[in-house]
Design brief:
Layout (H helix, E strand, L loop, with lengths): L2 E10 L4 H11 L3 E10 L2 E10 L3 H9 L6 E7 L12 E10 L4 H11 L3 E11 L6 E11 L5 H15 L1 E7 L2 H8 L2
Antiparallel strand pairs: 1-3, 1-4, 2-3, 5-7, 5-8, 6-7
Protein backbone atom coordinates (compact mmCIF):
# COMPACT_ATOMS: atom_id res chain seq x y z
CA UNK A 1 0.00 0.00 0.00
CA UNK A 2 1.31 3.43 -0.93
CA UNK A 3 1.56 5.78 2.03
CA UNK A 4 1.15 9.54 1.69
CA UNK A 5 2.76 11.65 4.39
CA UNK A 6 2.76 15.41 4.81
CA UNK A 7 6.06 16.46 6.39
CA UNK A 8 6.87 19.91 7.74
CA UNK A 9 10.35 20.87 8.90
CA UNK A 10 11.71 24.04 10.47
CA UNK A 11 15.21 24.85 11.61
CA UNK A 12 17.68 27.71 11.84
CA UNK A 13 18.93 28.37 8.33
CA UNK A 14 22.26 26.78 7.44
CA UNK A 15 23.68 24.66 4.62
CA UNK A 16 22.74 20.99 4.66
CA UNK A 17 19.19 20.94 6.02
CA UNK A 18 17.67 19.68 2.76
CA UNK A 19 20.37 17.01 2.49
CA UNK A 20 19.65 15.80 6.06
CA UNK A 21 15.91 15.62 5.42
CA UNK A 22 16.18 13.89 2.08
CA UNK A 23 18.75 11.40 3.39
CA UNK A 24 16.17 10.12 5.87
CA UNK A 25 13.64 9.84 3.03
CA UNK A 26 16.10 7.92 0.83
CA UNK A 27 16.95 5.57 3.72
CA UNK A 28 13.26 4.61 3.89
CA UNK A 29 12.64 4.37 0.15
CA UNK A 30 10.30 7.37 0.31
CA UNK A 31 9.68 9.60 -2.69
CA UNK A 32 9.63 13.39 -2.29
CA UNK A 33 6.67 14.06 -4.58
CA UNK A 34 5.97 17.76 -3.94
CA UNK A 35 7.58 20.38 -1.75
CA UNK A 36 7.79 24.04 -0.89
CA UNK A 37 10.96 25.18 0.83
CA UNK A 38 12.08 28.68 1.75
CA UNK A 39 14.07 30.80 4.15
CA UNK A 40 11.63 32.90 6.18
CA UNK A 41 13.33 35.30 8.54
CA UNK A 42 16.36 33.38 9.76
CA UNK A 43 14.58 30.03 9.63
CA UNK A 44 14.46 27.39 6.93
CA UNK A 45 10.95 25.99 6.44
CA UNK A 46 9.81 23.05 4.32
CA UNK A 47 6.47 21.45 3.55
CA UNK A 48 6.75 18.16 1.69
CA UNK A 49 4.46 15.45 0.34
CA UNK A 50 6.27 12.14 0.71
CA UNK A 51 4.93 8.94 -0.85
CA UNK A 52 5.93 5.33 -1.09
CA UNK A 53 5.69 1.84 0.30
CA UNK A 54 7.73 2.87 3.34
CA UNK A 55 6.85 2.10 6.95
CA UNK A 56 5.36 5.46 7.90
CA UNK A 57 5.90 4.94 11.64
CA UNK A 58 9.60 4.18 11.22
CA UNK A 59 10.01 7.14 8.86
CA UNK A 60 8.28 9.44 11.36
CA UNK A 61 10.56 8.16 14.13
CA UNK A 62 13.74 8.80 12.12
CA UNK A 63 12.55 12.24 11.01
CA UNK A 64 11.83 13.20 14.63
CA UNK A 65 15.43 12.23 15.48
CA UNK A 66 16.53 15.28 13.45
CA UNK A 67 15.52 17.35 16.48
CA UNK A 68 19.04 16.72 17.83
CA UNK A 69 20.30 18.66 14.77
CA UNK A 70 17.95 21.56 15.51
CA UNK A 71 15.37 20.57 12.89
CA UNK A 72 11.79 20.33 14.18
CA UNK A 73 9.79 17.90 12.06
CA UNK A 74 6.09 17.08 12.18
CA UNK A 75 4.28 14.53 10.05
CA UNK A 76 0.70 13.82 9.15
CA UNK A 77 -0.81 11.01 7.12
CA UNK A 78 -2.76 12.25 4.11
CA UNK A 79 -4.31 10.85 0.93
CA UNK A 80 -4.52 11.96 -2.68
CA UNK A 81 -7.30 14.36 -3.55
CA UNK A 82 -10.04 13.08 -5.84
CA UNK A 83 -9.42 14.07 -9.46
CA UNK A 84 -13.15 14.79 -9.80
CA UNK A 85 -13.35 17.20 -6.87
CA UNK A 86 -12.49 20.31 -8.92
CA UNK A 87 -13.15 18.99 -12.42
CA UNK A 88 -15.43 21.83 -13.55
CA UNK A 89 -13.62 24.63 -11.70
CA UNK A 90 -11.71 27.36 -13.53
CA UNK A 91 -8.05 27.70 -12.56
CA UNK A 92 -6.95 31.30 -12.20
CA UNK A 93 -3.91 33.27 -11.05
CA UNK A 94 -4.08 36.35 -8.85
CA UNK A 95 -1.26 38.89 -9.10
CA UNK A 96 -1.33 41.61 -6.44
CA UNK A 97 1.10 44.52 -5.95
CA UNK A 98 0.91 47.56 -3.71
CA UNK A 99 2.21 49.45 -0.72
CA UNK A 100 2.76 47.05 2.17
CA UNK A 101 0.27 47.29 5.02
CA UNK A 102 -1.66 44.98 7.34
CA UNK A 103 -4.77 43.14 6.20
CA UNK A 104 -4.20 42.69 2.48
CA UNK A 105 -4.10 38.86 2.50
CA UNK A 106 -7.03 38.71 4.90
CA UNK A 107 -9.18 40.92 2.67
CA UNK A 108 -8.50 38.83 -0.41
CA UNK A 109 -8.72 35.42 1.28
CA UNK A 110 -11.99 36.33 3.03
CA UNK A 111 -13.52 37.34 -0.30
CA UNK A 112 -12.39 34.04 -1.85
CA UNK A 113 -13.74 32.04 1.10
CA UNK A 114 -17.11 33.79 0.87
CA UNK A 115 -17.37 32.73 -2.78
CA UNK A 116 -16.31 29.08 -2.13
CA UNK A 117 -13.09 29.58 -4.08
CA UNK A 118 -10.34 27.09 -3.28
CA UNK A 119 -6.85 28.54 -2.81
CA UNK A 120 -4.29 26.11 -4.22
CA UNK A 121 -1.16 28.10 -3.42
CA UNK A 122 -0.08 31.53 -2.24
CA UNK A 123 3.32 33.21 -2.36
CA UNK A 124 3.85 36.56 -0.67
CA UNK A 125 6.88 38.75 -0.21
CA UNK A 126 7.83 42.33 0.47
CA UNK A 127 10.36 43.86 -1.91
CA UNK A 128 11.74 47.35 -2.41
CA UNK A 129 9.82 49.37 -4.97
CA UNK A 130 11.98 50.10 -8.06
CA UNK A 131 12.16 53.89 -7.86
CA UNK A 132 11.29 54.85 -4.29
CA UNK A 133 12.68 51.84 -2.44
CA UNK A 134 9.57 51.80 -0.24
CA UNK A 135 8.14 48.41 0.84
CA UNK A 136 6.10 46.84 -1.96
CA UNK A 137 3.86 43.91 -1.05
CA UNK A 138 3.56 41.20 -3.72
CA UNK A 139 1.18 38.25 -3.70
CA UNK A 140 0.72 35.55 -6.31
CA UNK A 141 -1.99 32.94 -5.80
CA UNK A 142 -3.41 30.04 -7.74
CA UNK A 143 -7.13 29.55 -7.16
CA UNK A 144 -9.94 27.31 -8.38
CA UNK A 145 -13.18 29.15 -9.11
CA UNK A 146 -16.44 27.17 -8.89
CA UNK A 147 -18.48 26.85 -12.09
CA UNK A 148 -21.35 28.82 -10.51
CA UNK A 149 -19.22 32.00 -10.33
CA UNK A 150 -18.46 33.91 -13.53
CA UNK A 151 -14.79 34.93 -13.69
CA UNK A 152 -15.78 38.47 -14.73
CA UNK A 153 -17.81 38.84 -11.51
CA UNK A 154 -14.77 37.75 -9.50
CA UNK A 155 -12.57 40.25 -11.38
CA UNK A 156 -14.98 43.06 -10.41
CA UNK A 157 -15.05 41.94 -6.78
CA UNK A 158 -11.24 41.80 -6.62
CA UNK A 159 -10.99 45.24 -8.24
CA UNK A 160 -13.16 46.63 -5.43
CA UNK A 161 -10.84 45.05 -2.85
CA UNK A 162 -7.85 46.48 -4.70
CA UNK A 163 -9.37 49.96 -4.54
CA UNK A 164 -10.16 49.58 -0.82
CA UNK A 165 -6.66 48.27 -0.04
CA UNK A 166 -4.84 50.63 -2.46
CA UNK A 167 -3.26 47.74 -4.36
CA UNK A 168 -3.39 46.51 -7.95
CA UNK A 169 -5.00 43.09 -8.38
CA UNK A 170 -4.97 41.22 -11.66
CA UNK A 171 -6.86 37.96 -12.27
CA UNK A 172 -5.91 35.72 -15.18
CA UNK A 173 -7.50 32.47 -16.28
CA UNK A 174 -4.90 29.73 -16.62
CA UNK A 175 -4.59 27.67 -19.76
CA UNK A 176 -6.50 24.38 -19.70
CA UNK A 177 -3.30 22.30 -19.71
CA UNK A 178 -2.01 24.07 -16.56
CA UNK A 179 -5.37 23.69 -14.83
CA UNK A 180 -5.55 19.96 -15.57
CA UNK A 181 -2.15 19.31 -14.00
CA UNK A 182 -3.20 21.24 -10.86
CA UNK A 183 -6.50 19.38 -10.57
CA UNK A 184 -4.61 16.08 -10.43
CA UNK A 185 -2.80 17.17 -7.26
Amino acid sequence: MTNHLLVTAVGEDRPGIVAKLTQVLVNHGANLEESRMAILGGEFAAVMLVTGEMDANKLQHDLSALEKDGISVTTRATKPISVDKYRDYTACEIFLRGADHEGIVHSVSSQLRDKDINIQSVHTEVISAPVSGSPLFCMNATILVPPSLPVETLKSDLARIGDAQSVDIELKVRRASEAKSDAKR
